[in-house]
Write a structure and sequence with these properties.
By secondary structure, the protein is mainly alpha-helical. The protein has a domain at about 15-45 and about 85-180. It has helices spanning about 15-55, 70-75, 85-105, 115-130, 130-145, 155-180, 195-210. It is elongated and about 70 Å long.
Length: about 220
């Protein structure tokens, strides 16, 4: 009698292979959306905000909202990774996106139960600071812990994981859509358009002139005859 173990419901179920492919694709989609979200929050967002205030801060109606305000000075200071070249910054993003795929607990739930649970906070700190060497070290540690795709062999459990990933990916997409409608994420791409910047500066100048009180007294209303 053979002692060979057969994975439950795997080879016998005709939908298993198709479901496995779909589940792995959902993991890829979730990791991609999470990578964009982290990039927006920690790097692109501060850079877009800093570029906006460099272009328009002198036209702010309220000084507290101008580029002279301390909080926007902090934003300006975070607008670049001064120790990294453009190529190195792109490399940091590439390494981080790979780490999201194999170490983020929302992408692979097993990462919350093994040594990767302590690695993820370190990975995130390294990414926020643009520390390429720390990310490379984390990559080596993480890859040593990953033995495979980590998907269930049981078709029922695989369906549960598929549905969890789909919900998580949809939630991440909604967050990105919401972020794209608010500052500074809603100005991405526009700051490279010189004509858009010119029009915005003109509009802000008009608002600034309209809201300033006339010299020598309070703003009043002219009677229209």
């Amino acid at each position: 009698m053979s002692n060979r173990r057969v994975a439950p419901n795997r080879s016998a179920h005709p939908a298993y292979d198709e479901l496995r492919v779909a589940t792995r694709e959902l993991r890829r989609q979730l990791a991609h959306a999470l990578s964009i979200e982290y990039d927006w929050r920690y790097h692109d967002g501060p850079e877009w905000a800093a570029r906006y205030w460099r272009a328009f801060g002198d036209l702010a109606v309220d000084l507290a909202e101008s580029a002279a305000a301390p909080r926007y000075q902090r934003v300006l200071a975070r607008s670049e990774w001064p120790s990294l070249s453009r190529a190195e910054a792109d490399d940091v993003r590439t390494i981080f996106r790979g780490l999201v795929t194999v170490a983020h607990p929302a992408v692979d739930p097993a990462a919350a139960d093994d040594a990767r649970a302590s690695l993820w906070p370190r990975i995130l700190r390294a990414y926020r600071s643009g520390d390429r060497s720390a990310l490379v070290a984390a990559w080596s540690e993480t890859r040593a812990l990953v033995r495979g795709p980590g998907l269930p062999d049981d078709v029922v459990a695989l369906r549960v994981e598929h549905d969890r990933l789909r919900a998580a990916a949809e939630a991440a997409d909604r967050r990105l859509a919401e972020m794209s409608r608010i500052f500074p994420f809603n100005v991405r791409g526009k700051l490279d358009d010189a004509d858009w910047v010119r029009r915005q500066r003109l509009a802000l100048s008009q608002v600034q002139a309209f809201t300033q009180a006339p010299a020598g007294g309070k703003a009043g209303h002219k009677r229209v005859s």
